């Protein structure tokens, strides 16, 4: 069966556009557009048949279906020919049973979805494979595209540069000067991207990149481009697949530009529409307290919204004061009995460090989500018998400076509770033996 997807205005006027059009907002009303699928055609196949097909493809070698994104191609981007797919075998990231951490909270069914176990170290790969593949498809159809550009706080630029390098397409990244980690900065440089460091914040970079892309035949790769959402929504499908096609009770996800929240919800709604699942989870979106416009709006029942000037936060990837996908995220949160929480610098750093002691290695953004979990459990807003999923968005190795400074007690506004530093000793057996014995006696 031939499947098809298209762009459609998400703000109510329902204007349609082809996926190979260079368009990010509705031409009629100016609203954000999103990718829509022919649900009736998808329903011609039974839910059981879809689940069996996805399981048969999962992490196998037939191109391009071994990718956990392209293994669901019919529901993601059927418009791209297989020979134009740009894939680095994304998805299929570990669902970590956080048994030991859960026990400290009295929770038996706590899981960490480690989306940072990816080619470039973050969940952004899931969306970028779709976007860059569509660009390659458009170029093959004769569209003039000189390059692909994004504003980024680090992870988006890494994903864009890697996928463009694999496709042989020029990448241009706009980074806020001195606001990304060294590990994040080096990725686009290593992949040969044109890297522009602007003396502003993410929102300032976003303003410039929009202008550049509006009139220079350069394709925009930020999350306002809803092709990325199609890849990111596969996190929902993959989660359910990894749980033997059962829906968890609660999912906690950090939010910055808020595309990930809308993507998460979109994946669950699609599965419900075609009958794979029959219920929806609660979604908890968490922001850093220094970049919390969604949280501030939530406190007012979403009746008011004001962009803010985001302050510097350890959770640099979500240091965004004017999120592009605000309206989409609010719609999803309302449909999913959603909660919005925030985390201070002290809370996120200590939450990440505590979880690290149970075998994880968390980025600060995962620390934001974990801090919210601790709060919600303490307030009995999450029941201890519920199945809870934390979305870990990036690999901790991209934030080693954050880790080192935590254990050296050099982070501002943080009182580290779980410091662990090397013990310097002389090379004498008895001194070493006694130190080990003393430390093991107090091991927790």
Automatic annotation (TrEMBL):
Q: What is its EC number?
A: 4.2.3.1
The domain of life for this entry's organism is: Bacteria
The enzyme's first-digit EC class, named in words, is lyase
Give one Pfam family, short name only: PALP
Q: Where is the Tryptophan synthase beta chain-like PALP domain?
A: 86-393
Modified residues annotated as N6-(pyridoxal phosphate)lysine in this record:
124
GO BP annotations listed: threonine biosynthetic process
An example Gene Ontology molecular-function term: threonine synthase activity
- What cofactor does this one take? pyridoxal 5'-phosphate
Which keywords does this Swiss-Prot/TrEMBL entry list?
Pyridoxal phosphate
User: Belongs to which family?
Assistant: Belongs to the threonine synthase family.
Q: Which NCBIfam families match?
A: thrC
Q: What is this protein called?
A: Threonine synthase
Species: Candidatus Scalindua rubra
């Amino acid at each position: 069966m031939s499947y098809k997807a298209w762009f459609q205005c998400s703000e109510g006027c329902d204007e349609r556009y082809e996926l190979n059009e260079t368009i990010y907002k509705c031409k009629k009303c100016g609203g954000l557009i999103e990718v829509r699928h022919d649900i009736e055609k998808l329903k011609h196949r039974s839910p059981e048949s879809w689940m069996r097909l996805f399981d048969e493809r999962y992490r196998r070698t037939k191109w391009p279906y071994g990718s956990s994104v392209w293994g669901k191609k019919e529901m993601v981007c059927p418009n791209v020919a297989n020979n134009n797919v740009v894939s680095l075998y994304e998805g299929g990231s570990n669902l970590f049973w956080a048994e030991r951490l859960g026990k400290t909270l009295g929770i038996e069914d706590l899981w960490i979805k480690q989306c940072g176990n990816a080619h470039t170290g973050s969940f952004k790969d899931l969306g970028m494979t779709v976007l860059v593949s569509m660009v390659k498809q458009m170029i093959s159809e004769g569209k003039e595209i000189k390059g692909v550009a994004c504003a980024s706080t680090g992870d988006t630029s890494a994903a864009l540069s890697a996928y463009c390098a694999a496709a042989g397409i020029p990448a241009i990244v706009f980074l806020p000067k001195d606001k990304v980690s060294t590990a994040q900065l080096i990725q686009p440089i290593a992949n040969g991207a044109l890297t522009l460091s602007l003396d502003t914040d993410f929102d300032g970079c976003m303003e410039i990149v929009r202008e550049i892309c509006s009139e220079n035949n350069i394709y925009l790769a930020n999350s306002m481009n809803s092709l990325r959402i199609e890849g990111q929504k596969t996190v929902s499908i993959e989660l359910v697949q990894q749980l033997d096609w059962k829906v968890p009770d609660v999912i906690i996800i950090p939010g910055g530009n808020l595309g990930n929240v809308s993507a998460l919800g979109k994946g669950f709604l699609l599965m419900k529409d075609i009958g794979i699942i029959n219920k929806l989870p609660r979604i908890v979106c968490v922001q850093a307290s220094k970049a919390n416009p969604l949280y501030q709006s939530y406190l007012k029942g979403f009746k008011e919204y004001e962009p803010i000037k985001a302050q510097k936060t350890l959770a640099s990837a979500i240091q965004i004061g004017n999120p592009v996908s605000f309206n989409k995220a609010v719609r999803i949160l309302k449909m999913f009995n959603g909660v919005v929480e925030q985390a201070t610098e002290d809370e996120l750093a200590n939450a990440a460090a505590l979880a690290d002691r149970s075998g994880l290695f968390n980025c600060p953004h995962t620390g934001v989500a974990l801090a919210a979990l601790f709060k919600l459990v303490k307030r009995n807003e999450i029941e201890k018998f519920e199945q809870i999923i934390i979305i870990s968005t990036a690999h901790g190795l991209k934030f080693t400076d954050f880790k080192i400074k935590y254990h050296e007690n050099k982070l501002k506004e943080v009182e580290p509770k779980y410091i662990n530093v090397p013990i310097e000793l002389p090379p004498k057996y008895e001194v070493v033996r006694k130190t080990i014995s003393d430390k093991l006696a107090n091991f927790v």
